[in-house]
Amino acid sequence: MTLMESPRVRPFGPVNWRGMWSLYRREQLRFLRYGVESIAGPAITSLMFLAIFQLALGDRADPMPGVALAQFLAPGIVMFSLAHSAFEAAAVAIFHDKIEGMIGDILGAPMTPLEVVGAFALAAVSNATITASVILAIMAIFVDLPLHAPFAVAGFALAAALLFALLGVIVGICAERWDHFSAAETFLVFPIALLSGAFFAVSSLPAGVQWLFQANPVFHALEGFRYGFTGQAQESLVLAAGVVLTLIGVLGVLAWLLFAKGYKLKA
Amino acid sequence: MDAHSIFARPRDPNAMGAVNWRGLWTLYLKEVRRFLNVFTQTLLAPMVTTLLFLAIFALALGGAGREVDGVPYIQFLAPGLIMMTLMQNAFANTSSSIVMAKVQGNIVDVLMPPLSAGELTLGFSAGGVTRGLMVGCAAGLAMAIFVPMGIADPLSLIYHAVNGALMLSLLGVIGGIWAEKYDQMAAVTNFIITPFSFLSGTFYSIERLPADWQFIAHFNPFFYLIDGFRRGFIGTSDGEPLIGYAVVLGVNIALWAVAHRMFATGYRLKP
């Protein structure tokens, strides 16, 4: 008996970095395990969108002066994939753990709610970024994409991914059945991600409907993201960044509170 | 229990004629109730997605007086979108039903009863056809609120709607029997069914494709389905009507034979 030491509590500082890394890594491995579906699926869909719009609308005037249709569409389609992938990654991860009963392994670990939410959200962000980067690289083969401000591209992409990852965390916590998850996807995520000005310039719409798009956070994220490529935006980037960051703050706090309270997580 | 009952002769099986109508009807009801039980996912969701596509294209066009095949673009697009969602849902119904039953092991509940291969093929595909047509009707009615839609050729409309739903249901049966895991089913949906249903003339007239691609498009049965269905609404089409009718029928007969053979031999169904 003397040869075996009793297990000791592993010491860690104010943040359980190892725990966060483990959870992050698990989510990343889960994503890579289904690499073909999680990357190639959205990639095919995105290229299809590009082809369809080019074929259906290719003979029309440029959506923005000096920006060809494909150059306008490519960032919009990438943003749609990014947002959808981030949402799906986070929501499915939590929801799946919940219905399979594995969420106990995470709730029982010595991690604060903030660490758990952070690890889930960051894993979803990095997974969605991988998908979006692949799509962008493939599109760059077919479309002559300028790169005006790389930092705006990266910044707005990460912010949008984080926004949708947090939304995914909230939906994953609240959903009790697959129905609920797919309802959130169909009635919330698809409409705001598709009706965001990804496929048309919002400034060219009648003034009466423009406000509808300006109320959509994806529109603002997309403005900044597209500006990074084309150098042109329909609104100020400070406003765009402000709206996106505020919403990240709100959803982040909401996700944190839900997790801390154990809403629909703890019996 | 009656003490003598253990000596009694087993109950006679339900008498049935050449076709097991009761079994067929039961299988069909199971297939229909399966998707009605989650109607937000199976009816409402496709309807909303289709309307979203319509909204995007209507907005992207910005009210310009663009015409395709002699009608405003939005009237050209609406039938294409209805057919697209009809096909995707017919496929999803049969493929998911069979692959789930296989993975969970309850496929024996369908294989054990006295149902012939033909009855199985009919029962499953009728369920898929029902879902496809219901989704198509729902999407069509929702669109009719926003888009003026007249009916020019009811025969062509109904023929292509029913045969389109049947074709994709049979493909779903074949795909579901072939696939051994959810991954494989998702791959077939993502890489074959969705691209084909998107790229077969839903959104644009085939004439907009380069000449070589136009030639290839005429070998695509999905093109004839969408084209023929659209003719039912707008009265004009890209392809030759009679060739369309024949191709669709021929493909369905061939797919039926394949699905029937798979059930008959138990390919990937029976150990």
Q: Write down how many β-strands of chain B occur, each being a DSSP E stretch of 2 or more residues.
A: 2
Cα separation of the termini of chain A: 39 Å
Question: Oligomerization state of this entry?
Answer: heterodimer
Rough shape of chain A?
Answer: elongated
- Helix and strand sequence of chain A: HHHHHHHHHH
Binned strand content of chain B: under 5%
Describe the structure.
- The complex is a heterodimer of chains A (267) and B (271).
- Helices cover 73% and strands 0% of the residues of chain A.
- Chain A is mainly alpha-helical and 267 residues long.
- Chain A has one domain (18-56, 64-261).
- In chain A, helix 3 (69-100) packs across helix 9 and helix 5 crosses helix 10.
- By secondary structure, chain B is mainly alpha-helical.
- Chain B has one domain (37-265).
- Chain B has a two-stranded antiparallel ribbon.
- In chain B, a hairpin with a 2-residue loop joins strand 1 (67-68) and strand 2 (71-72).
- In chain B, helix 2 (39-61) packs across helix 5 (117-144).
- Chain B is elongated.
- Classes of the chains: A mainly alpha (267), B mainly alpha (271).
